[in-house]
Amino acid sequence: MNDEDTLIDQATRAALASRSPVEMNLDNELWMVVHPQADFVVVTVGSHLGRASPVQVLQRRQERPERLSCWLPAMLNDGQLVAIKRLPRLAGGGVDSLSPATFELARELLA
Fold this sequence. Notes:
The chain has four helices and five strands. The chain has helices at residues 3-18, 54-63, 65-68, 100-110, and strands spanning 22-25, 30-36, 40-47, 72-75, 81-88. The two termini are 23 Å apart.
C-alpha cells in the first residue's frame, strides 16, 4: 500500500466517523473530498493543475468508456473540472477502498 492509498483510506474513515466532508491534498497535482451520505459516499477528485478543458475531458471519457466511465466528470461553480465517484455503503456502514487503479483513472480523466 502506498502513501496515497493510506491518505484516501484515512480520509474515508474520517468522513464516515465525523459524518461530514473531509478534504485532502493527495499530491502536488490532485485533491480529494470525501462526502458521506446515508447510503453511499461521494468521492470527488480535482486537479490543482487544471490543464484539460471540459470538451477534452468529455471526449476522453467518450473515447475510452470501458476505462473511464467509472468516474463522472463535473464542473464546480468556479469552473474547475472534477471527477466524481459514488461508493455504496457496506453492511457494516463502511465502504470499499478506492483502489489505486481506480484512482489513477480519475487522474487520467482530468489530465
